[in-house]
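Running log. JK asked me to keep both predictions on one page so they can be read side by side. First protein, sequence followed by its tokens:
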Amino acid sequence: MEKYYEEKLYRENRGGGREKQIIYCYVYGIGKQYNVLSSYLKIYQDKIRVLALVTTEPQLITYLDGKKIIRPWEMDIDKADYVIVAMKRYKEVFGILKEMGASGKILRSDIFSIPNFVLEDYMKVRKSRPSILSNTCIGGFIYNDLGLEILSPTISMRCRNYIQFLKNYKFYLSMDIKAKENEYLCDELYFGEAFAPKGTFGDSVCWWFLHAEDGIAEAEKWNRRRKYVNYDNIIALMSIVTDDEAYEFDKLPIKKKLGFYHKDLKLESILYTPEWSDAAVQYKYHYRYEGFIHKYYARNVEGVGRIDWIKFLNGEKSFLRF
């Protein structure tokens, strides 16, 4: 039975007031990651009910923290809103749960350790099903770190004339991309030199599959993922090279967008990144945006990320942490 409370924590009761809605979950895993998760489960004990703990390991114990330990095949998926996976072998467990028909109900346990995590806000992001368009790997990192379904083909790629793509993204995403021969790419502001397969739409817009060797396989992946794009919730991200790009990006009629630029142009949708205007930093990394994702997105200052991505994806204006 499909449950009304799968996508929201509250509902209107007959008296017109607001009644707390409980989320029912199985927790898959009883090891070290579960030990970390158990503290968060206590914090959310008025919102999350654990039906049972699940493991494939030999059952030396039958109960843990007052919860029964069961095998995967003993789960009743219809009774659960989500299955929280508290194991390092996430992909393996995902495959098992997918075969059981639970692929849309999977939560990774590490989402609870996201800084300033609020369960209701996170569920709002999941419900909104964002499609992130980006010209660096940052989109893939966000999907992975938040444990969200990937609803975009622009993952781990570089684009020539990305602004043109964003201006007409519905048009380009309505077509299959065509795999072309590998091409030498030299970009002094981004990645330096590379020899990578590419995909084109027959005009000036071209995507390079930087982390792939087989262009045909990557094109097939792109063409499969483009069909899942949620046009009701488009997110545009861009690392910017020139002033002209910055001004064009700021004018795009996309509600949720964020550009990264090393100059402060006082534009609403452009985040000034002074770290990349420092000559010493440029010399150290050779190219202005090399290592952008790892050095800026994830570990900008003392291991602290600058952006609260849950807030940003929910359309909040106060998404910067510092």
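And the second, directly underneath as requested:
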Amino acid sequence: MPSFDVVSKPNLVELRNAVDQANKEIGTRFDFKGSDARIESRAEAKESDLTLYADDEFKLGQMRDVLIGKLAKRQVDVRFLDLGGKPEKIGGDKLKLTVKVKNGIEPALAKKIVQTVKDSRLKVTAGIQGDAVRIQGAKRDTLQETIALLRAKVSDVPLSFENFRD
């Protein structure tokens, strides 16, 4: 039976390259001269996050803009980043901002995807499997219609479709 998986995970290699390019630009920019501004990334099997260090709130905002620009150039969707955190003081005037990198589909979104597929009346079945949603159908064409439907309906998170099998 043909099937595919709906997942939401960033390309970690491109993410690391974007962070390296952002660090290189921050190191050479005149407005960051003499400051301890840097971006550090921590990537593990399931969780990864970025930590931005800056001297003040303005430089932190500038670093965020540089990072978003580099991510856009590397075709990494910015919706993978949770930029809503508050900066915390780490001593003196220094600030630290931890940015979570979203990986996987959360259970509430997975339920929404399954419900969207069921409401579409397409002849496919959808089931939640961990942090992915597996969709199975009798015909390949209905699976492709399902992919088009999910691209149109779900815009909260960047979705990708893997393991397309006949």
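Observation for JK regarding the second prediction: Strands lie at 3-7, 38-43, 48-54, 81-82, 88-91, 94-101, 124-129, 132-137, 160-165.
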